[in-house]
Design brief:
mRNA binding; alpha+beta; 6-stranded antiparallel β-sheet; 974 residues; Serine Threonine Protein Phosphatase 5, Tetratricopeptide repeat; 28 strands
Length: 974
């Protein structure tokens, strides 16, 4: 895969101008002491143990240079963000941004020294190499709590250093992929890549690992494979589902294991009892390469994360590798089909879109970011150029292709110069760069040959082994001819501007001005090259954290200052997305920030912000956020003028349209869409009203077809209803649910950070299994419709386990006669947004339940034998109140039956009635599941969660982000 380029803001601040990089010893205190400049081993370096680091010799640090525990700080800050409320998030985001800034700065500072001393004898190096095992990358270094290793091909695995650099880029992408999954319990290290003088260095925070702590994957090339820890296996399965990575059998026939991800990924249980992942270079599956490709292409020609996530079937990371021998044909066929879809559908579709853009818009286009958003690798620039016909688009693509080919050539030249000179210096490299730039500008005798032959070799299939197979079909037949000078089709200003960004060089402003006005006359001289800087690629934490912090500050201010902070936040999010356009966390925060800003605007400015928010939610494929944005717009329209209300209705309809495009079975969006059209119709008359009523009926009909249990609150009226008149209730065009049944439906909030709507969605009926709105984060909302006081209403709810994909169906009868009373204010305070308050029986001791005789069995409440249990009120200590739930809970015929009852509590003052079931799941600890129901108020708050607890044999309420789903009153406060 082609190396990713990032915008200016996404890369680290360059070293301040005037810094003398040749004076590196003066800027660096020796990191370690030792006799004769050697090493003094000691047993524990920052608590860092690892099976591969069993032989680690670490040099004793000088006392005057403190070593930060980067990992502990990183994990603590991330944990704080997850645990704290909105009030504390600002402080934690600022801490995260500061930590990431510091890590990148330290890594870049010491990384430059290590690269400059690459070819010095070990005894003469300022930072000594350490022996920690492994051959890939050659020498390793540990300095200031950071592990450094070169991304070079020392043993011929990758067929060249350039390919090894690509693999290091995939290491960062894979790490970021797992980080974005936000699987609680899975931890990754801080990581950054340092590019300098043609070399790439991987810098990673030291982890508290130990010999024997490997519990997942392999660290010996697949000879032994681990899947030893049930919890780790479970978390890796969840992560693979989010990444769309296929689980598969790995290992020798005598020791086979079923794993998710590449065989050579490593999962460790650290000394701090956290689970850590390492070695992410092959997380994403390889692209199926044509005949004659290098054998090792599966190590660096990988599919983009965005493409893998959207592929119809999960793909195996080990396809086409020596690890993927079990069911090899199946795994490789799926990857071949995915590759064909990329080449035949995704790339042509993007090329057609690009071809349709006018020249004015092309000037501000972020080409590679748009390609990555569609899941297209940079190596396919040539395929795209072959498919377009617009001359400006062809030039745009050629400029990018040339910039990247020249970058590869420059990196190779700088590596060779480093090996030739050996001593750290600056002058030879500046001269080499100026000479090469003038060759490109046409100011050298060899320039004609360069533009007619050499540059084409770099771009075509017959490229050398070192430069690799770059851009297939990138040149037309005429352009590829030996007498065609390609320089005539190139914008020199664009190429040199891109080279500054991707190479870390800086040219004088006057030189660039002359290049813009008269490119043929410019010849660079020594003073025109101001700086050669180290480039840092990192985890996008800095820009994301800064953007999130700015959003929070903007929401706490008003007026122009709020707008300024919002705009700064959006710029940070844009920067953070430049290399990983599918980052769900960033897209979510960006969309939510736009929604917050939209609330203070009106007219076209508000509309522009809404469309941007829709775009962000579409990118993350989050139907829940789209639906909630539609309902927010619906609410905002209620107190607007007729004109503004019409605009907001149109925007709300657009959100529902976008949601149903992503999920055609999303009945909630169709239902809300019908509501919008219905209200529009009420404000109209004549044929326009009739058309809107018809459209509304179509949406209701679609919602009912997807969920037959719906009850339509206000069906469209018959033709000719007067303007604004309420339609008769008997004119429903679609069947309604039975009058005795009100059903729980999906829709719940979850815990989306910065959510623009903090209220539950409008309650409405439902009743189908699995018809809820479920987004990529697996969060579901449960709502209840109907009159909660109807004597024999049946409330039906399906509670889904996001991990195990199992569900529990409960039917509840005689709700109006089930009473919860308590003299404990603390107990009552845990009820939120209950449809009706508890009855005035506060004098009764403890929580008391009474039950009337249930009605005759219905289709959704089959008779069961009476079950008895006991209830404990934790606010009053162990109580003796009794609960006789005769026929209260009845299992659905096609779902698990109840086998026993036990007692417990949610830990927040609300009594729970846990029970076990006979469910059989794939979970390694299914026998310890507790499915719990919290009963409160006559309305009721009916809460359920499926929460595996591998440490204790009792139910644990969702303090560990095992999300509960509630029907009839909303989530309980924690």
């Amino acid at each position: 895969m082609e190396e990713q380029w990032r915008g200016h803001g996404n890369e680290d601040e360059e070293v301040e101008e005037g810094e003398d990089e040749t004076s590196y010893p003066a800027a660096l205190e020796p990191s370690f002491d030792g006799e004769d400049g050697g090493s003094t081993p000691y047993a524990n370096s920052n608590g860092y143990y690892h099976e591969a680091y069993g032989k680690l010799e670490v040099l004793k640090p000088q006392e005057r240079i403190p070593i930060r525990n980067w990992n502990e700080e990183f994990q603590s800050v991330l944990g704080g963000i997850a645990r704290c409320g909105d009030a504390g998030k600002l402080d934690h985001y600022n801490k995260l941004s500061s930590l990431a800034h510091d890590f990148v700065y330290v890594a870049k500072t010491y990384g430059k020294i290590i690269i400059l001393e690459r070819f010095l004898p070990s005894g003469q190096k300022t930072i000594k190499p350490v022996d920690i095992g492994g051959t890939a990358g050659g020498e390793k270094y540990i300095c200031q709590g950071i592990l450094f290793k070169f991304a070079v091909d020392t043993v011929g695995i990758y067929s060249g250093d350039e390919y090894s650099s690509k693999a290091a880029g995939h290491e960062l992408k894979g790490l970021m992929g797992y980080y974005q999954c936000q699987i609680e319990g899975v931890h990754v290290p801080l990581c950054t890549l340092i590019d300098y003088r043609g070399f790439r260095l991987i810098a990673m925070s030291i982890l508290p690992l130990y010999y024997g702590g490997l519990v997942y994957g392999s660290n010996d090339g697949g000879l032994s494979i681990h899947a030893d820890d049930p919890l780790m296996n479970h978390m890796m399965k969840r992560a693979a589902k989010k990444l769309n990575i296929k689980g598969h059998v790995a290992g020798r026939s005598t020791d086979k294991k079923f794993i998710y991800g590449p065989t050579d990924i490593e999962g460790h249980k650290g000394q701090d009892d956290r689970y850590y992942l390492l070695d992410f270079a092959r997380v994403y599956p390889p692209e199926a390469m044509p005949e004659g490709s290098p054998k090792a292409s599966y190590l660096y020609c990988l599919l983009r994360p965005e493409f893998v996530k959207r592929n119809p079937v999960p793909l195996s990371s080990d396809a086409f590798s020596r690890f993927g021998q079990h069911h090899k044909d199946v795994h490789e066929r799926e990857v071949v089909e995915a590759t064909q879809r990329l080449h035949r559908k995704v790339i042509p579709r993007f090329a057609a879109w690009l071809d349709s853009q006018d020249e004015r818009r092309l000037k501000g286009l972020k080409l590679t970011q748009l390609m990555h958003r569609e899941g297209i690798n940079n190596r396919h620039l040539g395929r795209i150029r072959f498919l377009v016909s617009s001359a400006p688009v062809k030039q745009l693509l050629l400029n990018e292709m040339l910039s990247r080919a020249i970058k590869c050539s420059l990196r190779l030249m700088l590596r060779r110069k480093m090996e030739e000179t050996t001593l750290p210096s600056e002058e030879p490299y500046r001269r080499e760069l100026i000479d090469y730039f003038n060759l490109v500008l046409g100011k050298r005798p060899e320039s004609d040959h360069f533009w007619k032959v050499e540059i084409k070799v770099m771009l075509q299939l017959k490229a050398s082994r070192v430069l690799g197979r770059k851009f297939v079909n990138g040149l037309s037949t005429d352009e590829a001819a030996a007498d065609y000078n390609l320089k005539r089709d190139v914008s020199m200003l664009t190429v040199f501007t891109r080279l500054q960004t991707i190479m870390g060089v800086r040219l004088a402003v006057k030189a660039l001005q002359q290049l813009a006005m008269s490119p043929d006359s410019l010849e660079l001289v020594y003073p025109d090259l101001l700086k050669i800087s180290a480039k840092a690629k990192h985890m996008d934490i800095i820009s994301h954290a800064e953007g999130a912090a700015l959003c929070i500050q903007a929401m706490n201010t008003k007026g122009e200052e709020s707008d300024r902070l919002f705009n700064l936040a959006m710029a940070k999010f844009d920067t953070a997305l430049s290399s990983m356009p599918d980052n769900q966390l960033i897209l979510k925060n960006w969309g939510d920030g736009l929604c917050e800003q939209m609330k203070t605007k009106a007219g076209e400015e508000r509309d522009r912000l809404v469309w941007k928010a829709i775009d962000k939610y579409q990118q993350m494929r989050c139907t829940l956020s789209l639906t909630k944005l539609g309902e927010l717009l619906h609410r905002l329209a209620s107190d607007q003028t007729a004109e503004e209300r019409a605009r907001l209705y149109l925007l709300a309809a657009a959100t529902y349209s976008a949601a149903t495009e992503l999920r055609p079975d999303l009945w909630q969006a169709f239902y809300s869409w019908g509501d919008i059209l219905y209200e529009q119709a009420r404000a109209k008359a004549g044929e326009e009203a009739e058309k809107l009523y018809q459209l509304s009926g179509d949406k209701y009909a679609r919602a009912f077809a997807l969920n037959p249990g719906l009850h339509i609150h206000h069906p469209p009226p018959p033709h000719g209803t007067p303007d604004g008149a309420a339609p008769p209730a008997t004119s429903a065009p679609t069947p309604s649910a039975p009058s005795s049944t009100a059903t729980a439906t999906t829709a719940t909030a979850g815990k989306e950070a910065g959510d623009p709507s903090h209220q539950q969605q409008q309650q409405r009926g439902g009743g189908g299994h699995g018809q809820g709105s479920q987004d990529d984060d697996d969060e579901t909302d449960r709502r209840v419709d109907g009159n909660p006081h109807l004597k024999y209403d049946v409330y039906y709810a399906a509670f889904e386990d996001e991990d195990e994909e199992t569900s529990l169906s409960l039917s509840m009868t005689s709700l109006s006669s089930l009473l919860l009373t308590s003299s404990s204010p603390s107990l009552a305070s845990h009820l939120r947004r209950s449809p009706s308050p508890p009855p005035p029986q506060a004098g009764l001791p403890g929580p008391t339940f009474s039950l009337s005789t249930p009605p005759s069995p219905t289709r959704r409440s089959p008779p069961v034998s009476p079950i008895r249990g006991s209830l404990v009120d934790p606010t009053r200590g162990t109580g003796d109140s009794s609960f006789a739930p005769a026929s209260l809970f009845a299992p659905s015929p096609d779902l698990p039956s109840l086998s026993s009852w036990s007692t417990g509590s949610c830990g927040s003052g609300l009594p729970l009635l846990p029970f076990t079931t006979t469910t059989t799941t794939s979970s390694p600890y299914a026998h310890r599941h507790r499915h719990s129901v919290a009963i409160a108020s006559p309305a009721l708050v009916l809460g359920a969660a499926i929460c595996p607890d591998h440490d204790h044999d009792h139910f644990v309420f969702p303090d560990r982000r095992r999300r509960p789903y509630f029907a009839g009153g909303g989530p309980l406060s924690r």
